[in-house]
Amino acid sequence: MATQPTPFLTPEQYLEIERKAEFRSEYIDGQVFAMAGGTLNHSWIFGNAFSRLTEKLRGKSCRVAGPDLRLYIEQFRTYTYPDIVVTCGEVKIQDRHNDTIMDATAIVEILSPSTKNYDRGEKFRFYRSLPSFSEYVLLAQDAIRAEHHVRQPDGSWLFREFTNSTDELELASIGCRLSLGDIYERIEFEY
Fold first, then answer.
1. pTM of the predicted model, to two decimals?
2. Which CATH class for the 39-183 domain?
């Protein structure tokens, strides 16, 4: 997310502009923020994670979408574009345009230097307000590292960090496991 907001817009104004825009922007309670481009590692990690999730969820009731699908968080009047979003069961769509969903079961974000604090903080707070949201995975692009947050029965969140290529994430809410070795396959890190 960029740091330069545009003047205040209503959600309707934002959607009208966004649906015609060449480049994506996120909307947070009246302000629009242009989204920055990604790095090679961001793209490759996305590709690996997206393809593994798609493969593992084939034939199940959950579906995987990439960063072109907009997510509306009603409580915070916010529109975001998660890197990867998984929905299970019936998809809650905002309107007749079929380009914005209103709930998610699991979300994966690939951390960037400019967005990592937002992804871990305010954006995670927004996501936690979604009724079905149960798991949040943050993937580093500068090292093998996954931060896994799981909603507990009492509403609290359990955090675990994984840093070895032999580690596997158990994504219980969507019924699959992801290997960090698969997610970080052929990724090179600069040191």
1. 0.93
2. alpha beta
